[in-house]
Amino acid sequence: MYKVKVFVTLKESVVDPQGSAATKALQNTEFPEVQDVRVGKYIELSFEKSNKDIEEAVHDICRNLLVNTVVEDYRFDIEEVGAE
């Protein structure tokens, strides 16, 4: 079995209103040293072993379902794990 960890973030050129709100809130409380916050998504996928190329499958899943590639970037890590 494989565990895939997908990290989705807004592209640098895209305004992040949720991140801006978090930055202001942190700066107005106990964390004035925080200069910037960017908010993203974390997604875990589990794959059974197969003859398919997992990396290619994850790219297809991200591009077609999980990620809006116009405004978001993604990266992922694949880890082989024992059956549970």
Keywords:
elongated, about 80 residues, single chain, 2 helices, three-stranded antiparallel β-sheet, 3 strands, alpha+beta, Mth169, Chain: A, cytoplasm
Kindly report how far apart the N and C termini lie. Answer: 9 Å
Rounded to the nearest angstrom, the radius of gyration is: 17 Å
Give the name of the CATH superfamily.
Phosphoribosylformylglycinamidine synthase subunit PurS
Order of helices and strands: EHEHE
Kindly state the number of beta strands: 3
Spatial arrangement of strands, main beta sheet: 2-1-3
Tertiary shape: elongated
Amount of helix: 25-40%
Provide mean pLDDT, rounded: 94
Structural class: alpha+beta
The profile of the biggest β sheet is: 3 strands, antiparallel
Per CATH, the class reads Alpha Beta
Q: Which residue ranges are poorly predicted, with pLDDT under 50 across at least 5 consecutive positions?
A: none
Number of domains: 1
The amount of beta strand, in percent, is: 25-35%
Question: Architecture, CATH level 2?
Answer: 2-Layer Sandwich
Classify the oligomer: single chain
Q: Using the coordinates shown, work out and report the CATH topology.
A: Mth169, Chain: A
Helix count from the secondary structure assignment: 2
